[in-house]
Amino acid sequence: MRVVADIPHPEIKITLLAWNGKYLIKLELGPFEQTYKVSEMDVAGDEEIKTWLDEEFLQQCMEQFLTMRKNLHEARRRHSF
Asked: What is the Cα gyration radius of the chain?
């Protein structure tokens, strides 16, 4: 696995990786992680993928992180002894 780029963002750690014929867009916030896989054959290169990381996409990812946190919290609450 090769790191193609670390993309600066004030809240989310964003890493673009290349592995096994795919680009991986890895987003991390606290203990949570989202990974999006894109075939290298479907894009012109890593610069194209970087353009996808616009405000709307990152806002939706942030909302998904909040949903992930809520889901984990509720699962822990349901199974607490």
From this structure: 15
Provide long-range contacts, Cβ within 8 A and 24+ apart, for 34-40. 34/61, 34/64, 34/65
Largest CA distance in the chain: 52
- Contacts with 72 (C-beta within 8 Å, 6 or more apart), sequence order: none
pTM score above 0.90: yes
One pLDDT digit (tens) per residue for the chain, 81 residues: 999 999 999 999 999 999 999 999 999 999 999 999 999 999 999 999 999 999 999 999 999 999 999 999 999 999 985
* Cα torsion 43, 49, 54, 57: sign: positive
